[in-house]
Amino acid sequence: MARVMGTGDGAEVIPTIGNGGSDIPGYMVVGFEVVPCNFMHNVQSVKNSKMYGKYPSPIKCDPTTVAMPIRENEPIVFTYEVTFEESDIKWPSRWDAYLRMEGSKVHWFSIMNSLMVITFLAGIVLVIFLRTVRRDLTRYEELDKEAQAQMNEELSGWKLVVGDVFRAPTNASLLCVMVGDGVQILGMAVVTILFAALGFMSPASRGTLITGMLIFYMILGIAAGYVAVRLWRTIGCGDHKGWVSVSWRAACFFPGIAFFILTILNFLLWGSHSTGAIPISLFVVLILLWFCISVPLTLIGGYFGAKAPHIEYPVRTNQIPREIPAQKYPSWLLVLGAGTLPFGTLFIELFFIMSSIWMGRVYYVFGFLLIVFILLVVVCAEVSLVLTYMHLCVEDWKWWWKSFFASGSVAIYIFLYSINYLVFDLKSLSGPISATLYLGYSLLMVLAIMFATGTVGFLSSFWFVHYLFSSVKLD
């Protein structure tokens, strides 16, 4: 119990029992502790007792012993006893007992592990920039024209693909749409985690987090349309044609996948007569928010993207594509393996998030989550940049999709971890419908992560390739 002296610490929120107008303080409950125990009651004496009367016999509560055997067709007596104790806890601090941070060493271990991965990758990137790229460019620019002509014949590695490196990828419009949606999801995650870390979205307020995510996602439709259309115009060398179609796809691609998955899961819930099914009214509200707010904002962003100047390529693209030499190992194998590094930075934090979603635990360490998220973005950028450079060095100029999936492949490992979590940690799930619901929601989460991390990898690789070939003077 905490005293209330009318000092503004909650006295005006919850009325307390006391003598009106007197200085005697009232009390409010600021916490509770439940101790269950098993006791052998006399059923007949309890039946004969009157309300507010004294209990027939004293009760000694020992939580470690089981005193009453349970037999069929025998009545069971349930009783409870309340003891009030005065406390120094203030009314605004009543949640602290449930939000007390435990296991902070695990979070710090996760962050230190991520920093080691980042340092290792940063060293590789530094070597690429300082030793390889700078050395090659300096040596090339110091030669006279005859030596340059001779060197052109002896070029090897990334300099050989100068006429193909900016060749438009296959399914360019799909890539633009996925990058645009990735920017939208990434921006939503950054803003939501930042607001939660600053304390604006408390776990004490149920639904605040998901509501904030929806609002930020809809507003950032402008960014999705702008990035998708501008990238589309850059790939098309400034052509305005088709920007409306790209904007529409960006507005409907990921939300369409999400609605498809949610609808299937909802039909399963309706079929099993579950109270957890999303009501039709909420579905209608979500569709109205999608088409009345998110889609128009995405189209507005696409309009600004169509008006903005496209990014000029530093080198010309040859009309005839260069043949890619045979590789010792499949390039996609390297791309899929690259996802292990981003996964290594977040798998410890992922356990706490999964426990919060599926085990009913409160997740509140958003400061740690913000740090891990920043480290994840840095690792994704570095991994994609290093792999893009490796592909260019073996004369593989088809780097567009590979740079996206180099960092986006972390989603595969997160989904495998989700299956592992289902098998070993969620043994209490009953029936195939519960497992299907879990896998469906996990698939939706994994797709969102793939879009966001893939976008980080692609944009960093695009910047790197543009910077690299803008420094080369090749005719």
Automatic annotation (TrEMBL):
SUPFAM superfamilies: MFS general substrate transporter. Its main location: membrane. It is a multi-pass membrane protein. GO terms for biological process: protein localization to membrane. One of its GO terms (cellular component) is endosome membrane. It holds the Pfam family EMP70. Keywords: Endosome, Golgi apparatus, Membrane, Signal, Transmembrane, Transmembrane helix. The chain crosses the membrane at residues 108-130, 174-201, 207-229, 250-270, 282-306, 332-358, 364-387, 399-419, 439-469. InterPro entries: EMP70, MFS_trans_sf. It is found in: Endosome membrane; Golgi apparatus membrane. Belongs to the nonaspanin (TM9SF) (TC 9.A.2) family. PANTHER family: TRANSMEMBRANE 9 SUPERFAMILY MEMBER 4 (PTHR10766:SF55), TRANSMEMBRANE 9 SUPERFAMILY PROTEIN (PTHR10766). This is Transmembrane 9 superfamily member. It comes from Hevea brasiliensis (Para rubber tree).
